[in-house]
Amino acid sequence: METLTAKPAITRDTKKLVAMQKIQSVALKAIHDFFEREGFLQLMPIMLSPITDPLGPDPGSSVLKTGEIEYLGQKLQLTQSMILHKQIAIGLGLEKFYIMSPNIRLEAAERRATGKHAFEFTQVDFEIKGATMSDVFKLVEGLLKAIVDDVKIRAVEELELLNREIPKWRFPFRQVTTHELEDQYGSDWESSASLDTDTPFWAICHDREFYDKKDYSREGEHFLNYDLIYPEGFGEALSGAEREHEYDRLMQRITEDKLDPKKYASYLALAKEDRLSPSAGGGLGVERLVRYLTGSKHVGDVQVFRRVPGETLLY
Ligand code: ASN
Q1: Ligand 1: which of 81, 98, 206 to mutate, judged by most atoms within 8 Å of the beta carbon?
Q2: Distance (Å, rounded) from C-alpha 102 to C-alpha 251?
Q3: Residues having CB within 6 Å of any atom of ligand 1
Q4: pLDDT, tens digit, for every residue of 191-202?
Q5: Cα(251) to centroid(ligand 1), Å
Q6: Is-above-0.90 flag for pTM?
C-alpha cells in the first residue's frame, strides 16, 4: 500500500506566499474578464457524481484510485475532471462556457518530485459547441496573453519580490506532434522540450481518453487533441481536444480502452439519443499557471493549503 513519505513544509515565506496570492488574484480576474468579453457563461462546478473522467487508460498516469463515497445508497465519485459534464452541458444548450472546477486526483507519492502535481487543484475548464482545435488555439493564446499582460501591469512589486521576469512570448504558438517530440526528446519529452523553448507550444495528437476525438479523415492513429506546454521547464499548462460525441464511436473507444460501458450508462444514454453535440475545449490548471507566473519550484508552493502527493496533510 502507498504511504506518506514526506513531512509537510511548516515554515513558509509569508511575504512570498502573499505575493503569489496577489498574482493569482490578478490572473483570475483577467480570466473572468477575458471569458466575459468572449461571451462565455460561467457555470458552477460539481464535486460528486456517479460518473467522472477515467483519466486513462494512460501509461503515464499515476492516479492510485478514484475517490468515492456512498450517499443515500448511491456510489458517487469525486470529480477527476468535469469533461463528461461539459459535454452534457453542451447537449443541454450551453454553447460557450467555463467552470472554475476543483479536481481530486489521488496521485502516487512519487509524483511529488515532478513539481507540477497536486492531488487537489482547480482547472479553468471550458467548452465550445462546434469549435475546432484551431478555434481553441486562438482563444487560449488570447487568454494567456491577457493574463500575462495584466499580471505584468498590476503585480509589478510582487514580481519583483519574487525575482520573476516573465519572458516575452512569440505568437502564434508553434504546433508539434507527440510523434515528433518523441523522436527528438524520447518518450519522456515534456520537461526537456519545455526547457528547450522560451515560448509556450502546442503538443498535438496524443493517444489518450475515449472522449478525445480520433481523426477519422486520416489512416492510422491520429487524434484531434492537444496539450499546451509552458517554456522554461514548467511543462504542461492545459490539455484539451475536439470531442467524440456519437454513440457508436464512444462505445468503440470505451471498449478499446477496456472500460466498463455500464459505468458511463447515463452519459452514453444521452449519446444514444443524439443529445451530445460536437464541441472542443480544454482545461487550464490554475496552480500550474500561478507556478509559471511566479517562477515557483512546485505547485504546492503557490497553494496556501498545500496538496502535494506524499506529504502529510496538517489542515
Ligand atoms: N479538462 C480536460 C479537457 O477538457 C480534461 C482533463 O482535465 N482530463 O479535455
Answers
A1: 81
A2: 28
A3: 53, 81, 83, 123, 125, 239-241, 281-283
A4: 999 999 999 999
A5: 19
A6: yes
